[in-house]
Write a structure and sequence with these properties.
Pfam families: DHH, DHHA1. It comes from Tumebacillus lipolyticus. The protein is α/β, with parallel strands linked by helices. The strands form 2 sheets. The protein has a 6-stranded mixed sheet with strand order 6-7-8-9-11-10, with helices on both faces. Strands 2-1-3-4-5 form a 5-stranded parallel sheet. Strand 1, helix 2 and strand 2 form a beta-alpha-beta unit. The radius of gyration is 20 Å and the shape is globular. The structure holds adenosine monophosphate (AMP) and manganese (II) ion (2 copies). The site of one manganese (II) ion has 5 residues, from helix 2.
Length: 341
């Protein structure tokens, strides 16, 4: 049963710019970051629904296959690889991506003179669009897309609501992380009035794990490490561990929460050998350490409490370098707190 629910959301000029972009342009290329997560997919697919309602043609492109667990999202089957698409686009919208590099090979489809709208919430966003709606207060890009629809005074149907709820839920860790705000919960509640089934989505996307994923958790926990202060803990995932478990890259997601959640730990880290000589590092912090800034120093990015980067080198050398840097950050933040007391 659908119920009406009124909302009173704050919108700045950038929302007007984005809403105008939605209305003004057609034949749009819609992009998100490589290895797309729930927020990237939820936001771009919700936007695709809204744009189609406005009578626009959209092309969805990503470098990587869409994870099976997100294939239930309406229009998810419309994604193409950049190699499957001919020509370049003059009108492009990028979602949930902090810099052009993270668009990967898909960026080759952007014409040099293109109008590019950058819709994102990463603190490390470098405003690479010709137009930018970067809302650092938003917990998820899905929250921003909801507000673009609100600015456009568009009705949100069940398909769009399903996409938006999925990204709001995944980027807040199931409405648990520190980015879970009053506005997030108001929007989530509003999406339920459109008929969204929260249990079905959380069960598919967050609760259900594959058998290889569980085997990988077992193997990863065997590698747990912790520094002398007890404030930094980590797990290590080698290619061999992923292969032995019969898993894939996606199965590694979330492992970083085990060290992060340990009592007394401020920064949890996962080190994953993504290919020989390339190490993907994921950071999660609890209260004080800005891991987004650390990831940025290493050529990556993210948020203050969740960030990532990829480093070249041997696993042990990368670990040593990263742990030294995080150790410094933890010590300086702890010292800072002690000074305040
Ligand atoms: P992850 O550790 O991959 O789950 O990512 C945590 C957060 O950091 C997410 O918001 C990502 O979008 C962001 N992030 C991860 N890797 C990178 C990267 N190489 N460059 C920029 N942002 C990243
Ligand atoms: Mn994302
Ligand atoms: Mn996001």
């Amino acid at each position: 049963m659908k119920r009406k629910m009124s909302l009173n959301l704050k919108l700045n000029q950038d929302y007007k710019t984005a809403a105008d972009f939605f209305q003004a342009h057609d034949d749009l290329l819609l992009l998100v970051h490589e290895k797309p997560d729930g927020d990237a997919l939820g936001s771009v697919l919700a936007a695709a629904h809204l744009l189609q309602k406005l009578g626009k043609t959209v092309t969805l492109v990503n470098d990587d296959p869409i994870p099976d667990k997100f294939m239930f999202l309406p229009l998810a089957d419309r994604f193409q690889l950049p190699e499957q698409v001919a020509g370049k686009f003059d009108r492009v919208i990028s979602f949930d991506c902090g810099d052009r590099k993270r668009l990967g090979r898909s960026a080759s489809l952007i014409a040099e003179s293109a109008h590019l709208l950058n819709v994102d919430h990463h603190v490390t966003n470098d405003k690479f669009g010709t137009e930018n709606l970067v809302d650092l207060e938003a917990a998820a890009t899905c929250q921003i897309v909801f507000k673009i629809a609100y600015q456009l005074q568009m009705e949100i149907d069940l398909d769009t609501a399903t996409c938006l709820y999925t990204g709001l839920m995944t980027d807040t860790g199931g409405f648990r992380y520190s980015n879970t705000s009053e506005e997030v919960l108001l929007i989530a509640a509003n999406l339920l009035t459109k008929g969204v089934s929260p249990y079905k989505i959380v069960d598919r996307v967050m609760e259900t794990i594959s058998w290889p994923q569980l085997l990988l958790i077992r193997a990863a926990l065997d590698t747990l490490g912790r520094d002398d202060s007890g404030q930094i803990a980590w797990v290590t995932i080698t290619r061999q561990m992923v292969d032995t478990a019969g898993g894939c890259d996606e199965d590694v997601e979330g492992l970083v929460n085990y060290p992060r959640n340990v009592e007394g730990v401020e920064v949890g880290i996962s080190f994953r050998e993504s290919s020989p000589g390339r190490i993907k590092v994921s950071f999660r912090s609890k209260y004080v350490v800005d891991v987004g800034a650390i990831a940025l120093e290493f050529g990556g990015g993210g948020h203050a409490r969740a960030a990532g980067c990829t480093l070249e080198g041997e696993l042990s050398a990368v670990q040593e370098k990263v742990l030294a840097r995080v150790g410094e950050a933890v010590r300086s933040n702890t010292a800072h707190l002690e000074e305040k007391e």
